[in-house]
Each structure stands twice: as structure tokens, then as C-alpha cells.
Specification:
The chain has 363 residues and is mostly beta strands. It is built from no helices and 27 strands. The termini are close together.
Length: 363
């Protein structure tokens, strides 16, 4: 066996693209910077099944580690709090190929006090300014906010800014903040968001290359869940909302029907369960690839799989993290009325699983 390469990672690095065979072990290390308040390792990629192992002070094995993430696809996460790590110590890691994988990236982010999350409250405006000297700059200049949702809510993020801005919103069921609800400002409103009870992360990200000095205001406003003509919403895992199928809604895929479209993000290996129930009409569900308002590519469809007339779809994403569209419609043309849409995602993040039996060791 020849010498083993150990990659030394820097804060904010995107390490990759990586492509390794099954049972290959790839080693890396990371020195936790002074002042670190929370530490995050995120593994994402196109295909395959790499596993992530971390240990402080020494290389991990299958039987000795501080954090392990062994999901069924390429989405792996280890989120570490100060009770686990100490600034100034070195953490060692292994990416192990449970199967062949390719086009995979590892991102490590150590946040410092300037990256502390600020409180965002429904109904109140949060004003801020991105400051290139004092604000969080990992991996890019941003303000980090946190929104606690105590009950089912339908909201919109209304943003006013002096310059170009990006906004990202995600919870622990969202596989990747990078492809969560995302829109560019200089100002405007997000999609309608269906949020279940949870804590949501919100990043306000510089869109000018890190110059800073840009002011913004964000208001999270409760709105009606009922769509207008061909409007779309975005559902987070854990959401359950009552909607109205109306004659003014977008045309359904089936001729003569009306439909609503709801977007959702699925991680690699993640399973979505969608249920649609109604008493005024016979519901019909479709899951489409990508973000579409037309016919699109139908991945799954159902009429009565949820019991009685309720429709139910269970679908597992076997590819990389991606966007999908839920079409909620009726089986019979011309039908309208109230219905309930429920969305759950499994597994949630970060992922953990029992250690396998084969041993890995230090290089």
C-alpha cells in the first residue's frame, strides 16, 4: 500500500468533486478556528453512497467516532455544538464508500460569534445591514436569522433592499440549504411557504461579491393558503394545510380539471409521503420532476391510495438533491372544493445510523 493522502480543509471549503470506488477510504482533517460557536460538515453529490465519520484528536473507525452520518444516498451531515468540540483542536474525518460514488463535495463551516443567529418573528420587520468587516463571512458574506414556527403557518417573506440579495430558508427536513427556497432581490416576495411547527434557518446573502454595506428589511407575513390562478407554493416537510381547489385555478394535467402546484425539495435517498383528502370531491395526486406548471414528467400518481377517496403518494428520490412539483387536482373534471394537503419527508437531517461491522482505521 502506497502513502495515503490526508487533505487539510479550510473553513468554508468545498472539497471535491470526489469520485471513489466502494470501500475506498478518503481522509481529511480540520483545525477548529478560535472563536468557533458551531461546526458543520455537509456532504452532497450526484450519485452513490458515501458515509461520513468524524472524530476529534484522532482518525475515526467504524467503532470509534464522535459523529457518523450514513444515509442511503449522498446527503450526509454532522452538526456539532460547543459541548462536543473545542476551538484550537483538530478534527479528523473519513469519507467511506458504502458504494461507488461520484461528483460529491464536502463542505465544512465553522461559524464564529458574528455568525450568531438573530431572531426573526412572524409579523415583525427585521432590518439589517450586511457588513463586510463584522458580519459572518463563511462561506460567503451573510446574516443568519432564525424563525420559530409554533403551529402550522402559511407565510410569505417580503424583502426590501438597497441592492442585490439572496434569501435561503430551510429546516431540518430540507436536505440542502443551497437549493432550499431561494430568490434574488433587490426586493420582492417569496413563494407562499407552507410551514409545519419547527425551527427554520434564514440566510440573507450578499449578492454583490462581498462588498457589504447593503441594507435590507424582511417581514414574514401570514397569508391565505389559497392560490390564485396558476400560483405556486413551497412545502417544507411536516406541513399540513387546507387549500381550495377553485374554478380560477391552473388547468390540471387531466383535461377539464383544475389544479394547484406545490414545490418541494428532496435529498438523495429521501422519501416523500404526500396525502390529499377532501369530502367535496375525489382527490387526485401527481408528483412531477422539477419545478413545472405544465404537464411535465410524472413520477408517481394516485387516486385512492390514502384510504377511502384520499390520494396518497410515497416516492423515494434515488438521484441527487433535487426539486419536485406536487399537482393536487380532482379525478373528475370540473370538481372544486376544500382539501387538505399533508407532506412528510424521511429521513430528517442530520442523519445517523448504527455503525457497520467492517473496520476503518487511520491512514
Amino acid at each position: 500500500m502506497g502513502p495515503v493522502t490526508v487533505s487539510v480543509l479550510q473553513n468554508g471549503d468545498f472539497f471535491g468533486p470526489l469520485a471513489k470506488a466502494a470501500e475506498h477510504t478518503l481522509y481529511f482533517s480540520f483545525l477548529v478556528p478560535a472563536g468557533t460557536t458551531d461546526l458543520h460538515y455537509n456532504l452532497r453529490g450526484a450519485q452513490g453512497n458515501p458515509d461520513l465519520f468524524l472524530k476529534k484528536g484522532a482518525y475515526p473507525t467504524f467503532n470509534s467516532f464522535n459523529c457518523v452520518s450514513q444515509g442511503p444516498g449522498t446527503a450526509e451531515n454532522c452538526d456539532l455544538l460547543p459541548a462536543i468540540f473545542t476551538p484550537g483542536e483538530t478534527w479528523y474525518g473519513v469519507i467511506y464508500g458504502a458504494s461507488l460514488y461520484q461528483d460529491v463535495f464536502l463542505n465544512v463551516v465553522a461559524n464564529h460569534p458574528a455568525c450568531a443567529k438573530q431572531t426573526l418573528t412572524i409579523g415583525l420587520t427585521k432590518n439589517g445591514t450586511l457588513n463586510s468587516v463584522s458580519d459572518c463571512k463563511v462561506p460567503t458574506l451573510r446574516d443568519r436569522l432564525q424563525l420559530v414556527v409554533g403551529s402550522q403557518q402559511t407565510v410569505q417573506f417580503n424583502v426590501s433592499t438597497t441592492n442585490n440579495r439572496a434569501l435561503r430558508v430551510w429546516n431540518n427536513q430540507t436536505p440542502s440549504p443551497g437549493i432550499a427556497q431561494y430568490f434574488n432581490a433587490p426586493g420582492g416576495s417569496s413563494l407562499v411557504l407552507f410551514m409545519g411547527p419547527d425551527t427554520y434557518n434564514v440566510d440573507v446573502i450578499d449578492g454583490t461579491g462581498g462588498s457589504g454595506g447593503q441594507s435590507y428589511g424582511i417581514t414574514v407575513a401570514t397569508v391565505s393558503p389559497n392560490f390564485g390562478s396558476c400560483d405556486t407554493g413551497l412545502a417544507f416537510g411536516g406541513a399540513s394545510v387546507t387549500l381550495q381547489l377553485a374554478g380560477t385555478d391552473c388547468a390540471g394535467i387531466t383535461a377539464g380539471t383544475k389544479s394547484d402546484r406545490t414545490y418541494v425539495v428532496l435529498g438523495a435517498g429521501q422519501t416523500i409521503t404526500v396525502t390529499m383528502s377532501a369530502t367535496a370531491f375525489d382527490p387526485h395526486l401527481r408528483l412531477l420532476a422539477g419545478l413545472v406548471t405544465g404537464a411535465g414528467t410524472v413520477l408517481a400518481a394516485d387516486d385512492n391510495g390514502g384510504g377511502g377517496t384520499s390520494a396518497r403518494i410515497v416516492y423515494t428520490n434515488t438521484g441527487p438533491d433535487n426539486n419536485y412539483t406536487i399537482e393536487t387536482s380532482s379525478l373528475v373534471p370540473g370538481a372544486t372544493g376544500a382539501y387538505t394537503l399533508t407532506v412528510t419527508l424521511s429521513p430528517t437531517y442530520p442523519l445517523t445510523a448504527p455503525a457497520p461491522t467492517t473496520a476503518i482505521g487511520p491512514p
